[in-house]
Amino acid sequence: MSPLQQFIEYSIVGIAAGGIYALIALGIILIFKSSRTFNFAMGEMMMLSAYFFYAAAVTFALGPFLGMIVALIGSIIVALVIERVAIRPMLGRPFIAVVMVTFGIGSIIRGIVGMIWGPNDLQIPAILSRSPIMLGEIFVPGKTARAFAIAVVIVVGLIAYLRYSRAGVALRAAAADAVTAYSMGIDVRRIISFTWILAAITGCISGVLMANVNTLTPHLGLVALNVLAVVILGGMNSLGGVLIAGFIIGWLEAITGLFLPTEFREITPYLLALIVLLVRPTGLFGTKEIERI
Amino acid sequence: MAAVLEVKDLEVVYQGVIQALTSLSLTVPEGAIVTLLGANGAGKTTTLKAISGFLPLEDGRVTRGSITIGGQDLLKLAPHQIVRRGIFQVREGRHVFSEMTVEENLIAATFAQRAARSRKEAFDEVYNYFPILSQRRGQAAGYLSGGEQQMLAIGRALVADPEMILLDEPSLGLAPLIVKEIFEIIARINREKGVSMLLVEQNAVIALKYASYGYVIESGRTVLEGTTEKLSADQDIQKFYLGVEAHEAA
C-alpha cells in the first residue's frame, strides 16, 4: 500500500471515530448550555448505557432492537435521577462544586458497574455489519463506517431540531438568560431536565456504538476524556462546532498513530486543546456575545 | 373577571439579611396604568420582581404580606406560572435574546401565550404596533437599536396577550423622541386591549403624564399615593422628582 493510500485510510478511520466523539460532545454541550454544568460523568453514563444494552439484549435475551429501547429508557431514567437528586440542589453553587459532583457520580457509576458486571470485556451482539466499505481502493472497516453514519445523522438531526424547533428556541433562551426565559413563561428547570434527557440519548447511542466497534468494559467511559478536547476545540456554546471539532480530533488521533508511537495518540488531543485555549479560548466556533447598549 | 392586582404590606429580604422592602402596598385596578415612583434603591424593581416571582432566583424571599390577582395568591406560583396567569414583566434593560432573531425572540414568548390564537395572529399584532420589528424580523436582536430592543421587549409581552404588563424603566437609555414614541404605543396598548400596566420609571415627568394613579416609595415602604394629577401638584413631588428631572435636563 502506498504511503498516500495509508494516510487516506488512517484519516478516514480517524474522522469516522470523530463522529462518535461529536455525539458524546453534543450531550456535554447541551447540559452546559442549559445550566452551566460541566458533566464529567458523561463517559460513565455512556458506558452504563452500553451495559444496560448488554443486560437487556444478552442477559434477558430481548435481542438488539428491544435491547436498545430498554437501554434508552434506562439511560433517561438514570439521567433524570442524577439531575433531580444531585444537580438541581447544586444550582447556583460554584461551578467547581458542581463539577466535583459530576466527577463523583462518574466514579459511583464505574464502581456499580464493576460490582455488577465485573472488570472483564464483554461481547455485545453485533448491531453493525462487519462488511467493509470500499471507497475506490480505500478500505473502511464496516463497523466504524456505519457507526460514523449513525452518529452524524443523529448529531445533524439534533442540531437542526434545536435550530428550528420551538423547544430549541426555549433551550437557547434559557441558556442565554434564565430569568428572562422564566419571564417568557419558559420553565427553565424543565429545560434543564430536557437537556439531560437529550444527553442520555446521545450517550446511550454512542455507548452502544462504541461497545460495538470496540468491546464493552467498565473503561469504555474513558473515551469521554478525548471528548473534552473536542468540546474545548469546538467551543462550549457551539452546537455546530462539535461536529467539525470531533472530526479534527478523531483525525488527529489516527494520524498521530500513523507517524508516532501509539503513546502519543493519547496526548495529541490535549496538546491541541491546550493550544486552542491559549490562542482562542472560545474555541474554533464558540461565539462571543453580540451586544449593543 | 376583575383582574385587580393587590400588593399588601409586603416585606422582602435578600440573602436572609438585607431588607429591601419593609411595608409596601399598592393596587392596580383593571385596565389602569399605575406608576411607582421612588429614588434609586427605594425598592421599585424589587416590588416588580416579587410580583413576577423572580425573587427566589436571586436569593430573595417575601417574608411578610401578600400579592394577589383577582383574589388568587401569586406567592405560591413559580415565575413561569405567574406569566401564564397573565402578568408579563418587561424587565429593566430590555433583556432581548441578542443572539436570536427578532422572530425567535417572539417565539420564545409563545410559551407565555394564553389566548387561543395562532402564532401568526399574535405576531401580526406585534408587527401592527411595531412595524419596524416586521422589517427586522430576521435580524439578530443584538443588532437592533436601543429603542427597537425596547419595542421587541414590549412586543414579546403582546405575544403573551397578558392581562397586565409590568414595565421596569422602559425609557432607560433612550432618546426623548423614542421614549415618547414608545409611551404612545404603551398607552395605545392599554387603551385598545384593556391591558393594565404597572410602570416603574425614573423619568417622573413621563410616568405622571401617562399613568392615572401613582405611588411614591421610600426605603421599601409606600409613603404617598394619589391620582397623578394630585401627585403632579404635590410640592414634595415637584421638588424631589420633577425638580430633579428639570435639573438633569438642563
Task: Describe this structure as you would to a colleague.
- The complex is a heterodimer of chains A (293) and B (250).
- In chain A, strand 1 and strand 2 form a beta hairpin.
- Chain A has eleven helices and two strands; from the N terminus they run H-H-H-H-E-E-H-H-H-H-H-H-H.
- In chain A, helix 1 packs parallel to helix 5, helix 1 crosses helix 6 and helix 5 runs antiparallel to helix 8.
- Chain A starts with a helix and ends in a 14-residue tail after the last helix.
- A two-stranded antiparallel sheet of chain A has the order 1-2.
- The C terminus of chain A is likely disordered.
- Chain A is globular, with a radius of gyration of 19 Å.
- By secondary structure, chain A is mainly α.
- Chain A has a single domain, classed as ABC transporter involved in vitamin B12 uptake, BtuC (Orthogonal Bundle).
- With 250 residues, chain B is an alpha/beta fold.
- Chain B has one domain: P-loop containing nucleotide triphosphate hydrolases (Rossmann fold), CATH 3.40.50.300.
- Helices cover 40% and strands 26% of the residues of chain B.
- In chain B, the strands form two sheets. Chain B has a six-stranded mixed β-sheet, with helices on both faces.
- Chain B is globular, with a radius of gyration of 18 Å.
- The termini of chain B are far apart.
- Classes of the chains: A mainly alpha (293), B alpha/beta (250).
- Chains A and B meet through helix 6 and helix 7 of A and helix 2, helix 3 and helix 6 of B.
